[in-house]
Queue: 3 jobs
Job 1
Amino acid sequence: MIGKYGQIIINDKKTLLKEITTMLPYTTIHLIGPSGSGKTSLVESLINIKELEIDELKIVRLQGVSSEDFRLPVVKTLKKNFSFEEERKVVELINMGIFQEILDNPDKKYLVFFDELLRAEASITPLLFGLLERRINGIKAPNMLVMCSSNYGDEYISNFDFSDSALRRRQIFIEYKPSKDDILDFMKENRYNDILISAISDMKIEEIISHGDTSLELEQDTQLGSWSLLNDRWKKLKIETFKAGRLDISKYGEYFFSSKTKKKFLNNLTLLEQLDDID
């Protein structure tokens, strides 16, 4: 399926990972979609794909970055080892440091992920063109794979022209719309709270993730990150019953969700609590 921006739309995670595994060794891949739809989490999972042979993932956030020295805030470094543990780094500004590291280690394969590419200052476009072609200061870097991500649509700020032919011909654009099964599989694989998983199992995808449909100016929208935050909260609070989950969402659900999602989630928790009492 082709979207309005010429992007390929993929709704299945397995298909998406297959396409990325096939194409990434040869070209830059640009993931687009609403914020909170799991783009960054998906890129982080690529370090586990044996065929890509990625040794290290560099996540670089481009929001607000200008061409001055091309200083990029590194958000996170993931180093591959036998247990795939994460090494989290404090946000720091670097002056081309990661790119020199890539050139200095030709036997080590890197994936550089430019997050929120379209929100960078337009002045860095000439620098980005080289990187999108896997060149550093004009030098070909065969040990560097490149991916980008951006939000799109009228509600998002963009400093680039999405239809710019020079920008488009250096990468392929894929929009990932996660299915409910993908989300549930992700939650189960990452051992999310059982009460949480049970309560969203019959929710529609637009109830699990909603964007741009909130009626109040400051009302929280619902993203995949919202569920992750709630899962962390429930682990800390040791929420182990539907009643405890219902009481927590009744008081604090607005911290995480749109009114539509909170209402459906709360109704499910109430129903499951009643069924649990009957049993």
Note: DSSP finds eleven helices and ten strands in the chain.
Job 2
Amino acid sequence: MKLAVHELYGLNERAMSCVNSITNMAYMLQHVQDLAFKKILERHFPLHIPDYS
């Protein structure tokens, strides 16, 4: 499949956005002190990590 430059750029932006979200959530899970927010993160974090098993 051939992609145009702007399509590759958009794909890269989306991929980096996903990586950034996962990285931030993993960091916050280790450092957040608000229990309600931590529960939300614990519930949502696994949804951002694909399971390829």
Note: Helices lie at 5-31, 35-44.
Job 3
Amino acid sequence: MLEAVKVALDPTPRQERLLESHAGAARFAYNNGLAHVKDMLERGDTPEWSYYALRRWWNQAKNTLAMDETTGEPWWPRNSKEAYNSGLESLADALKNFSKSRKGQRKGRRMGFPRFKSKDSGIRRFAYTTGSFGLIDHDPYALKLPRIGRVHCMEDASKRVDGAKVLRMSVSKRGGRWQASLTVERADLPIPSPPKGGSVGIDLGVKELATLSDGTVMHNPHALKSNLRRLKKAQRNLSRKRKGSNRRRKARAQVARLYARVANLRSDALNKTTAMLAHTYADISIEDLNVAGMAGNHGLAQSIQDAAFAEFRRQLTYKTARTGARLHVIDRWYPSSKTCSNCGTVKAKLSLSERVYHCGKCGLSIDRDVNAAINIQVAGSAPETLNARGGSGRQTRLECGTMRHPAKREPSGGDSRVRLGAGLGNEAMQMTSL
């Protein structure tokens, strides 16, 4: 299996200049390759934009493109050839995504045609895929970068890799700091036994990040909201600086550091929460939230994006597969918040301002999020039951005229059906014995 190991670098001033040079070389190859593709399209020629076609073109044209106008000598040998290749690889991937998106072969939003990369706003990055790079024997706190040399690391890189084979090393600069991401290949681990914590339902929210069915509450750090005032001040300061000045460069670096802090706070909270859940509970049930649709509410869009529900589910998916826990994903149309966890009565309406659920049938009064988490736990532990119209096959009409489980009557191909039970959300990553 493949795994990414991210390590913070501590380069010297000379090495920082070399890292900047390599990132600039990747950007130079990307921009010139894109100009070459656009030129072929304007001439009406059939464009050859695969990675290997772009590499062939670059090897033929690099002595002309990467040449010092004063001395007439090519300057491309100053950087590793891998830097140029990584820029061409990024361009080939962008063109492939654009082509697939235009043909309807790619999921997600429609991709536009690639644009030129800017030195000021673009992320500085390059990668190594061949050659002698990566770990250094008997030097655990260092990495070897061809043409740059030994670069000190902020932690024990050898311990993080733990004997795995390093296939690729991507180097990037984010928030003013350089970091290396190592793609390693590990042997498949033995099938783990599930944790002994039983089952739990999770209701994700904006005020609190997650509420569990046993009453445990995971607090939301509100990473963006807590730093918004400082961000506004730093961005106002940046807008007042003259373009191209030294002070504008420093102001931009300050804004980048604040955004990096926001991302780190959010990542830290999500990683700790999902790791705890994956190592504690054997069966975990969550909702299939429509985050894009929820973000359409402009009053809550910023808070919803700050909570990062999609990233929460992504991390929970692969971490539960590692620990042997089972992740159950409940249908997004299941009314977990409107359903009474005691008698099953479904309310017709429930406003967001009602933070305590009051059942008019059985008299239950319970926290709204805890009630939803209990319903999610019950739905995740139940087997899937669907009738021909997509509703639950176990309907019980109560005295008040409501149904315990809703029945959808519109024709459906299956994607929008309401399910009481749920399938494994991490089934694609579950390890099987040979």
Note: Residues 246-280 form the longest helix (35 residues).
